[in-house]
Give the backbone structure.
Amino acid sequence: MLKKLLAFFERKRLYAVSLLLAAPICIAMGLTRLPLSEKRAQGIPFLSDIITFINSQDNRWYDTLMRQQALSQSSNRLRRPARENIRLVGITEETIETLGAFPFDRKYYAQLLDVLDAGGAKAVFFDFLYSSDSREQLEVDKCRAKGGKCPHMGSDEIFAAALARKNNRLLAYHFDHKQYESMADREEIGQNLSQEERMSASLTYPVPRIRRAVSESNFGLVSFAFDYDNIARRVPLTALNGVDKYRHADLVLFCWAKGLNPEEARFHEPSGTIRIGAEQVPLQQDMDEAYYYVYKYGLSEMDAAMTAITIPFHEAIQMPKDYAVEEFKDKIVFVGPIAPAIEDMKTTPVGNLYGIKCHINIFASMLTGSEIRSIFGRSDHRARYAEMIFISILGVGLGLLYARVRKTWLCAILGLAATGVVVIGSAVLFLNSLWMPIAAEILCIIAVTIAIIAYVEILVRRTFKDFVPDIVVERIIAGESVNRDVEATVLFCDIRGFTTLSEQKESKEMIEIVNEFHQAMTKAWSQFRGYRFDFQGDAQMVVFGAIEHYSQQQREDHALLGVKSALAMQYELEILREKWIMEKRPVFEMGIGVHTGVISMGVVGGHSIGSGHKQFTAIGDVVNTSSRLQGLSRQLESPIIASSATYELVKDHIWATPLGEVDLKGKVQKVGVYRINGFLEDQEFQEFRKGVVDIHVQRSAHNSAV
């Protein structure tokens, strides 16, 4: 099985490489989605920064979708439930002008309760902490301490008495997250206090006389879960992984609106919901704060807050009973500040909102089942693992798809298309209250696309350079013209009698012989800076002094280099012949023609419908003449034939025999030709020849011994 798999990847090498490139990127991106908070990642280099960046981009996208949905008509469905079930009694600027500076006398809250009780309100929520005694109550307490004649009841006592009349009042208490964290971090305290004790120590309740007026079940948390950018996108509905204590105010109001007992609410871990009888509220387990679960409310429910009927506080406390019944009968009444002078603004994805309107928002979201749910699951830990798997499948799938298409421009288009699908898919899902983060997914797509395109580009360049010189590849890729007319020396070599030989031997053996021949010839001319322009079966065309023109380094000794290569190739063939004789293989002769002149080199060819082929090559009379000279080598009984044009450039270095002038096909004038025998004085070539001869002698001695 393993061998078959390896064989498959050998045949589909690009698939294997794509998989190897995509897999580490997917794993790296997936690791950032593990259930690991930014705080816990501080000790891991770069991981915290990456997590922060990804989370910040996801939050920005979330806020964009929230704002878009808040403006869309899809939130209109919330207007009717909000108007039917909710009333907002707001402390406005006009209220402050009428009743005096805030905080004002708490007897006004008692008057409001009288009106609401007369109107038949279903529940009343006060979004105030009342964490200190009022100014009026302190004056009464001071008077009593002195034993003077004092009012029968202070303002706080009046308010407490009004609270105690009915059990439908909900008061606020606050959880100080920073204080909790500081206590948990201090070992001298953390070791002595349990988690629940630290939780209790971090809570702020109303003053005792107000707190005692209602039962413990009539308190609700008013805290928000702020992200690193201080934007409230979630609210902690439960704490300490349970709902029997520390219930959020909006959860209590939801239970009262449904006619349920909040104390019966229980967290159901398998479903990730709070269950109260037949009702349930889905939760999202918070990754960073293990001590509570959060409810990701939909801020598109701003319509609920904005369209809820608002009655100014100072008008509500003076409302006649018949009007009160009309306005408040069976309504959930929210009481809170909506004046800029009272700093109770919360930063949300759609802007700054008053805290009381955020609570209306959350309540309406629960009432209409419009919470935002993660597409990957309700448990944040499970959702992160699911997202990690999704990223891996996405990245590896794209990598394999890129390996199939192979074209870099198509890979880029597919990468853009995949990004578009993720973005549009996330937006469409959000319209159905489903949240899918996209930052890690898009980073994975970009990274995989760049990696595969870069590899394909490298592969193309590497393959291209097997056929075209590096400098020419760079010029072609840069879009520059590579067509040149230059003076150069052209060498043609060919195996004599190859056709007859190939008819006598099996094709496999002939391929082995020809490959060995070409390897030896390539080794010979490559050390003299030649470049092979054409390669056809048993023949090669090598040019000297041409490629250097692209780098502005023209060589004047290209004719000498061409002749050196011809002699070196002849010596290499002699070594091969002895080897083949020992192996009882067929041997053959080789003919070489060398000519110097102006050649035209560049890209030739064209495109046809459905196919096309272009080739980097050299053409011209010099090329044709060199080929004709090679063809004369058998007739003139000379392995190496050079033209007079080449001879005139190297005559001070070579030992050559003139063979007269010959007629060549396609030439009007006769061409002088020379048989190349060797060099007169060339230290470099003599050393090369000596090395070849030494090897030849050693092999001959070895063969004789055998």
Remarks:
- Residues 217 and 456 are 66 Å apart (CA to CA).
- The longest helix spans residues 439-465.
- Confidence is low (pLDDT under 50) at residues 73-79, 287-292, 299-304, 695-706.
